[in-house]
# Entry
Amino acid sequence: MSNIRQPLTAPIRRVRFVYVALFFALWTSAIGLRLVWLQVVKHHDWMERASKQQQRTFEVAPRRGVLYDRNLRELAVTVLAESVYAVPSELGDNRGNVAELLSGIVHIDPTDTFTAQSSIMARLTASRNFAWIARKLTPEQAQRVRELNLKGVYLQKEFKRFYPNTDLAAQTLGYVGIDDTGLGGMEREFEEDLHGTPGHVLTAVDAKRHALGSEEREPLPGENLVLSIDTNIQYMAERALDAQMLKMKAAHGTVVVQDPHTGQILALAISPRYNPNDLKHQDPSILKNLAVSDVYEPGSTFKLVTYAAALDGAGVEPTDIVDCQGGAMTMYGRTLHDDKSDHFGRVTVQYALEHSSDVGAAKMAMKVGNSKFYDYIRGFGFGDRSGIELPSETRGLLRPARKWEATSIMSIAIGHEVGVTPVQLVTMVSAIANGGTYLPPHILLDETEYMKGDNRLKPAAFHPSNSLPAKMPDGAHRVITELTAAKMRSMMQGTMVTGTGKSGALNGYSAGGKTGTAQKIDPVTHTYSHTRTVASFAGIAPVNNPAISVAVVIDDPMVGTRYGAETSAPVFKQVAQEVLEYLGVPHDQPLKEVKPGTEPKLEIAGDAPSEDPGDLTAMYEEINALPADDPLRQKSDAALVAATASAAPKPVTSTERKGVFAALPEKMLKAFRDHGGSSFMTDEAENAKIAAKPIVDHVQRTDGAVVVDASTKVAVPVMQGGLRAVIQQAAGAGLRVQPVGSGLAREQVPAAGTMVPLGTEVVVRFTR
# Structure
């Protein structure tokens, strides 16, 4: 019997093989499709997730551009401040204690909910990797946080906007938010240019968050803006406006000072103002710029447009006769009245403007006609945006002539049924001042990457001109002829001499202008109010060669007659007087002696320079730190006053110069000639001698202290004129000036001719 050998494996069935092969094919296909989905279709998403896990990107804020005035004084700068933040995942269970400790340091303002303990705790709970505690701390707060040395709490430097002059030109400059984004004024209008381009820091990290390397891109700082504003003129305008606002208990006020030959705005003052360094506690209603966004009926100041149109377009002459009909005129059932105290009959056109006759103005407009009158109004810039570099400018209110009612021309002729802005008003006056050419107003001089101190960035100090630019700016056009403009200036001067603007007349300067008083619409009755008004004044000075144009608008005065003559004209008087003296504009009229105590005082306590008749000698001794045995300490005030009597400012002609010097003691005259201390000499030869003599100035140390050169002495010059003239006279002799008061130089310590070391600070009292 034979043995049959058994097979070692079971037979393979074909069906089972097919199933297994099919399974592996499907499994491989699924894996392949999944890989295609992950590596092709979702490749970008997974790369982003990987980058978030493996890399950290930090944005580096750029430095915001600086705002300068025309003399390169900083109006808005960016400084470094420290902010505190936390990484909640590193705090563990101590979040409550950390929130309590930090809120005790950073929560100093009860109205600030962001830094309250509950708010800090909510942010620590809501985030795992990052939570702000407080932004832009004071140095004291940052130091206290640093001393706590809390785990998971860090300080980070940030840029912070700072306004060195607090509320000066606040509405013009504007303000920024917590992230340095411009929200108002120039800050908002030029946000893109000022903000700059942020930088980036890309850092690779491992699984334990350790940095492996970084790649940086530097931020690009923002552009710097140079404004046409002069800080000194801005301060003068704001001081005068604030004082009158307080006196009249008015709601709002605006003063605009403009160069009539370029259209540049030298000052744009608004009251009340706000402090952009402390926005949390400011009234939102005062943030807007009333000079470009506030529309009001101009009243009688608009008569300048009416009379200019009549002289230029209807052949009217200032000496022509107009019948004012006793102060009342009826047309289409409507009666137009002059002021209740005015009952003019047949008077000259000039007299009608000087005394602000409404009837006379209406008849001038009717001589021109609706369509032509409308064209002149538009030519002066009304009814359209001026293009000034400020946000939220309105075009004003002016209906086309075809939509005027039958009696609209009577209303528009006297400044009703038309809405204007203060900037439009001052630009209209500038067109008359410069010879009849409309120049769009501008407040931006330059946009540059250069910083102060770079030789490529030069200050643009304002010097009055008597000619228009060689290249006219876009939008400039002639409105009236030069002859018409000259006639209008003469009529405006008459308003200041014998008419309604007498309270705005200047001392030593001719001026021309027009008062205006417009009734406001009562929101309840929708009719003109008998108690609420807008008082305004628009003027120029000097008349024959205007250096400045000024518009003053005071809204809703509550004290006095509330007319423009009483409310706004005095502000023009103070602003124009101080600005012309500051600019060194020559007097074109004799100076009138002002008795002490009779000059108007429009000053705010704490803001204006003191005019208290204090001891100038003591001030001089203190400023210059004179030793006890210094001879200047031996002089009495009486002697100093007597010695400076000849310094009283008055116009000095070339023929009077020898007489003036002849009155000086020979010793003093010799000192003047030897040291160049005088601003004028007896002959051209001596002038040339002084001009050739080098001036050695004082030395300023790195810590800011000024050191005088005791080895070299110079004679103190006769200080005369306004502040700018006095500073120039002192600088020419190598001296400095400590001003007291405002107006013209009246008294100085030490006396003229006194020999003092170079760099000495001379105390000069200015009065009106």
In short: Residues 238 and 748 are 27 Å apart (CA to CA). Residues 14-41 form the longest helix (28 residues). The two ends are 153 Å apart (CA to CA). Confidence is low (pLDDT under 50) at residues 600-613, 632-665, 667-710.
